[in-house]
Model the fold of this input.
Amino acid sequence: MLSVFRLRKFALAAAAVTASGLVSASAQDPAHGRKYKPLPPIAHVVVTVEKGFNSKPLPNVAVVFHATRDGRDDGNLEVKTDPDGRAAIDVLEVGSHVTLQVIATGFATYSTEFDLTGDSKEMLVKLQRPRAQVSVYEDNDGKAAQVKPGTQERVIPKTAPATTTPPAAPATPATTTPPAGETR
Done:
């Protein structure tokens, strides 16, 4: 059983909800209120990352999407690959120009650009081991990298410890013979 006070409170709350519903309905009147702008169509993008030498999937690889649309920067989005080497994203607008960058430890960074023209896009990226840098002075095409992949630390060569004792003198004195024809 409800008390009179609770009934009044309930009746006032119901009246307030009804009044606010009427006000908000009139605010969206097409003749006078703000206009509804539908959301742009969104594309489903899937990137599969594999090792280039044996086609096995690479898990936990950073896949970075940088989207621009009509000269407007939409920002960067980073997604990690799952155990099957797949990274999926569903927030890029159709018609965007996208720069894709794939970064994995021990592999050369991969980068490409593409336009989202449809509602879905699938890509296969095969990462390669690092190669020697391109040089104007030397032909490094196809040569392996000089530095092994992974985190590099500076190696400081160890020097021999300095000795504090002077070099030992020979045990026997050196004897010299006088040249022939000289007398002492």
Observations:
- The longest helix spans residues 4-27.
- The chain has a mean pLDDT of 78.
- Helices lie at 4-27.
